[in-house]
Structure formats: structure tokens, C-alpha cells
Write a structure and sequence with these properties.
Layout lengths: L1 H9 L5 H19 L4 H27 L13 E3 L6 E3 L11 H7 L3
Antiparallel strand pairs: 1-2
């Protein structure tokens, strides 16, 4: 999965990409149900949603413990090269926000 590849590159297990995946999947499911699409089409999306939501909860726990960054920049965009040095230095995003509470988390998905 692309999210995991990026996070393994940066060593930051941010919850935001999974929050986006959950929101997007819910939107698609609602759209399919509104159009009376067959059960099998929705079933696979619900299975994906379960995976995304589980990973989202795991990443929220990780962020509470290590790095509560709201947005995760890609590793290459978060590095600077100092003058006269041959290596890059990782600089996390300057945008920092408190991690949402459990109540806010569940209500943000409209559940």
C-alpha cells in the first residue's frame, strides 16, 4: 500500500492518510447505496473500510505517543541539505496540532 511505503520511508506513522481513506470510502459506499448497487460491490468496500479504520486507530495511538503531526510531508520535501555537507537532515513539518480526542475522532466520520 502506498501509504505504508511512504510512512516506512519517513518513520512517521501519521493517522491523517488513513482518516482520508476512511472518509473517502464512506463517501463511495453512501453513493453506491444511494444508487442501489449490488451487495457485492459494497461488501468489498466495507472490508477495505474495516482495514483503513483499524490502521487509523493504530496510527492515532502511535501519534499520541510519538509525534502528533497533523499533516505528514513526504520525506524528500522534509529534508534540507546544509551548506558544505553531503547529507540531508530530516525536518518534520512545522504545522503541529493537538491530536483529536476519541469523541472528535468518531464524530468526524459522521458515525
Amino acid at each position: 500500500m502506498k501509504i505504508e511505503a511512504i510512512q516506512s520511508e519517513t518513520f512517521i506513522n501519521n493517522y491523517h492518510p488513513y482518516q482520508t481513506a476512511v472518509n473517502f470510502t464512506i463517501k463511495i459506499i453512501k453513493c453506491k447505496l444511494a444508487n442501489y448497487e449490488v451487495y457485492q460491490d459494497v461488501y468489498s468496500l466495507v472490508e477495505d473500510l474495516k482495514i483503513y479504520f483499524q490502521k487509523y486507530k493504530e496510527r492515532v495511538a502511535w501519534c499520541k505517543q510519538y509525534q502528533p503531526y497533523l499533516v505528514q510531508l513526504r520525506y524528500n520535501f522534509s529534508c534540507i541539505t546544509l551548506e558544505k555537507c553531503d547529507f540531508k537532515t530530516f525536518c518534520p513539518s512545522s504545522f503541529v496540532a493537538q491530536l483529536v480526542t476519541k469523541r472528535q475522532t468518531i464524530s468526524s466520520f459522521g458515525l
